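I hope you will forgive my troubling you with a question about protein structure. I should value your view on which stretches of the chain appear to form regular backbone elements. Here, with my thanks, is the record as I have it:
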Amino acid sequence: MVDTTKNTLMYTTWGTKTAKPVNPNVAAKLISKAKKPLLVAGAEIVDNEQLAQRAIAIGKKGVQIAATGHAITVFHGKGVNAKYINIHALAHYLGDKNWKGLDGQGSYDMIVFLGHKKYYLDQVLSGFKNFSDLKTIAIERHFMQNATLSFGNLRPDVHIEALDEFIENL
């Protein structure tokens, strides 16, 4: 088992509420129990074939994907439920309890993030933390202190190993 709860050094300031470190198998179990999870895939997966493969594998497990930036190019023709949306618009919509989701079937109860720049995603997560009841899990390579749960800071090879364990337990 990959221990992703260590090395949670934060490189930015934080508030009174900080993410709890989480192991891949626990994160996967939480996603599996969610009624309607959403994977928000960022543009960092486009230039990283290993991340792209893992994002596709998560989608094939039945998790809907919101592709931000130019990440949608990774999912074309791969047999996953991926829709393009701007991350700022998505953050706005996710905060609205009456929003029916990307598929029109209702709002999401668990939001998972993969493939984003830390400084960019941190601001989006800060909005969720302070102004919504959404549960967020960052399965990013860096600790995201404004998520509800997050992997710690990981080396690239350990991050891929953690993602494989996460997918296996979905």
The chain has a mean pLDDT of 90. The longest helix spans residues 118-131. The radius of gyration is 14 Å. Helices lie at 24-33, 49-60, 72-75, 87-94, 118-131, 156-168.
